[in-house]
Automatic annotation (TrEMBL):
This is Thiosulfate sulfurtransferase. One of its GO terms (molecular function) is thiosulfate-cyanide sulfurtransferase activity. Keywords: Pyruvate, Repeat, Transferase. Residues 18-135, 167-280 form the Rhodanese domain. The lineage of its organism: Bacteria, Pseudomonadati, Bacteroidota, Flavobacteriia, Flavobacteriales. It holds the Pfam family Rhodanese. The keyword Nuclease does not apply.
């Protein structure tokens, strides 16, 4: 499975839709996400909740708005969702994989599950292509997920590491939020607008083409090649607002054939709350 693309196309999903090992998950977000799922979702897809299944929310000052759950708790969640080591997991959301679909993909990869893909174009594209839809709740039989690991396997760094990176000319911090948030012009979610010192802005939306599909691996490689030519991958850190959308860019990087660099899960939501005084010049 090492050579499997992290992106699955609509027609590929149609071909494997009757595979008994296939597990499809709907991870759209928002205040009425579950209600919208119950009204309409891709056939045989199970709803996954970002806040309760893919995060353990506490104080945003300690880990940001969507800190990762404890590793062992996430392993239990996988079993409850019906995923085992043989499952072919396909994930979609209603934001072109830009939200929780990519986060769930990253988390599965980080527990060592390689047979996982994000549906290109997400819910809207599949619906426009007349993929079979269902309503109501759907679930798979619970199983027991066995991981050979005891902790997350993809690279992460934490706030103290990011502080050091802001003063390290050999390191680069990449902010994937839209430019208005990065530039401090607007901040719809967190307490203060702006960005981490010395961070560069590579908005995640640039991973997509004009109709909301991922650009080709070649185009993505061109987009990020300068970054990887100038910095060691171990010195590259991606972040966003709360460690969710950043995974969209990590997914794009994997799709383009790059090694997956560091993720700063706490992201701007953690950083801004801890650095508020210095940021405002107090």
């Amino acid at each position: 499975m090492q050579n499997q693309s992290p992106i699955i196309e609509f027609d590929e999903l149609i071909k494997i839709s009757e595979n008994p090992n296939l597990r499809i998950f709907d991870v759209r977000t928002g205040p009425v996400a579950k209600e919208e799922y119950l009204k309409k979702h891709l056939k045989n897809s199970v709803f996954v909740d970002l806040n309760s299944d893919l995060a353990e929310i506490d104080n945003p000052k300690n880990g940001g708005r969507h800190p990762l759950p404890k590793f062992e708790n996430f392993i239990k969640t996988l079993g409850r969702l019906g995923i085992d080591k043989d499952s072919h997991v396909v994930i979609y959301d209603d934001k072109n994989g830009a939200n929780a679909a990519a986060r769930f993909w990253w988390m599965l990869r980080a527990v060592g599950h390689t047979n996982v893909q994000v549906l290109n174009g997400g819910l809207q594209f599949a619906e426009n292509q007349n993929y079979p839809l269902s309503s109501g709740e759907y679930s798979y039989s619970e199983t027991e997920y066995i991981s050979e690991y005891k902790d997350w396997q993809l690279p992460q760094i934490w706030m103290n590491d990011v502080k050091k990176a802001t003063q390290d000319s050999d390191a680069v911090i990449v902010d994937v939020r839209e430019s208005q948030r990065y530039e401090g012009i607007a901040e719809p979610i967190d307490l203060v607008a702006g960005h981490i010192p010395n961070a560069q802005n590579y908005p995640f939306i640039d991973n997509l083409d004009e109709i909301g599909l991922f650009k080709s691996p070649e185009k993505l490689r061109n987009l990020y090649s300068e970054l990887f030519e100038n910095y060691d991958k171990n010195k590259i850190t991606f972040h966003c607002g709360s460690g969710v959308t950043a995974c969209h860019s990590l997914l794009a990087l994997d799709y383009a054939g790059f090694d997956i660099p560091n993720l700063y899960v706490g992201s701007w939501s953690e950083w801004s709350r801890n650095e508020l005084e210095s940021f405002l010049g107090f």
